[in-house]
Each structure stands twice: as C-alpha cells, then as structure tokens.
C-alpha cells in the first residue's frame, strides 16, 4: 500500500474507539518485546496458535505435520497490533491482510515483517478497511471487547468470510474471575498496562456466539482458555477467556 491509501486519525472508521486506538498506539514500540507491555500476549500467543492450527487442520482436513497449511489461501487478521499473529499466518503460507486501528502499531508491524522477509498487507483502520473483500480464514483475537459496536463488528467480520471459510475469535468472558484476573490484578500488578481492559465491554460466550449466528455463520466450537501456575492452557472452562470458531457453509 502507498501512504496515500493509509487511513489516518482524521478519517476514522466507525468501528474504532479513538481512545482505544490511542492507548494501544502508545504501546507499539514495545509490542515485540517479550518482557515489555505486551508480555502477556507473548505468553498467550503459543496457545492461541495451537488452537488456531487445530481449527485449520480440522476444517480443511489437513495433515497436522505440514508446515504451510494455509498455502493458496487468503487470511485476514483483524486488530493485528504489531503482527504477533499475522506473521505466523504468513509463515503458514497464507496471503495475509492485517488491519489495526493504531497507525503506530502498523508502522512497527511493517518494519518487523520486512526485517524477517515476510509479506503482509498491513492496513490502518477498522473492519471497514476490508469491505467487499473475502478471506478463507478470518481471525480476531482479543479485539471485539475494544470496538465501538460489537454487533456491527462481528457482522462485518462474518461478511468477510468466504464460502467454505473459517472465523476464529477470542475474547475475555464477563465474569468475576476476568474482572479480578485481567482488570484488577493484572493491571494493578503491571502485567498489562492500565486502561487496557474495560470489564463492562467483555462478552459472555452466549452473547458472542449469538452475534456470530445472527451474522449467518455456524458456530462449531467454543473452547475455554485458562491461566494456571504454568501459564495459559486450553480447557473446558470459559470463565476467564475463550475461543470461538465458526464457518460459512
């Protein structure tokens, strides 16, 4: 993309909450530092990649030993930050488009990808940045709780899923545990920057799955994400956080 095609702060997408974009933009320079402000995301990334790879292999009936399960397919990572998920998707063989509301994060993402000779179509903006386009795989991890209108956001994500394609999302549940662990304790202890989470914006699994179903996709899996003494693990409990996978038939 050329500079002229980049959405700027003066032409915001309606899905974007300006304060949220500004908050994450300030953290952009530390995004790839595993000990910096995004340390928790670095701890979470291997688990969500494990979940995502399982969903991909099952959906397209692939060999889980293959290195490029997304070869020949288009992938969208919505709310990509500085590319923690977009880069692995590119390594899996996908033609990746990645979008984020914070221009600072996209700038860091582009430089990081270039340094690793990875091709990712990074764009500044919201879901509107890919209006009219469709993708075989759409991911949006820990994002829906930060947007202006979750219903409209999910509908737009669903519209970007091609026939036979897959949508994978993750988000915190709105429970006493998430309030304590992700807002009060994590922010107070400095594990995530203050102001990162607004507990009132969290979605329960039945709320998110209803939005996805209303948007015309079939929900095929809900898996909990738990945090224990050894870090994040996939499990049956959705009390803290969870993944949702849906498909377009």
The CATH superfamily name is Vaccinia Virus protein VP39
User: What is the distance, rounded to the nearest whole angstrom, between the alpha carbons of the first and last residues?
Assistant: 32 Å
The residue fraction in helices comes out at 25-40%
Strand order, sheet with most strands:
3-2-1-4-5-8-6-7
Q: Mind telling me the C-alpha Rg?
A: 17 Å
Largest sheet: 8 strands, mixed
Number of helices: 7
Low-confidence runs: 1-11
Number of strands: 8
The rough form would be described as globular
In words, what does this structure look like?
Belongs to the methyltransferase superfamily. UbiG/COQ3 family. This is Ubiquinone biosynthesis O-methyltransferase. InterPro entries: SAM-dependent_MTases_sf, UbiG_MeTrfase. Pfam families: Methyltransf_23. O-methyltransferase that catalyzes the 2 O-methylation steps in the ubiquinone biosynthetic pathway. This protein has 249 residues and is α/β, with parallel strands linked by helices. It has a single domain, classed as Vaccinia Virus protein VP39 (Rossmann fold), CATH 3.40.50.150. The chain contains seven helices and eight strands. It has an eight-stranded mixed β-sheet with strand order 3-2-1-4-5-8-6-7. Helix 4 links the parallel strand 2 and strand 3. Helix 5 crosses helix 7. The N terminus is likely disordered.
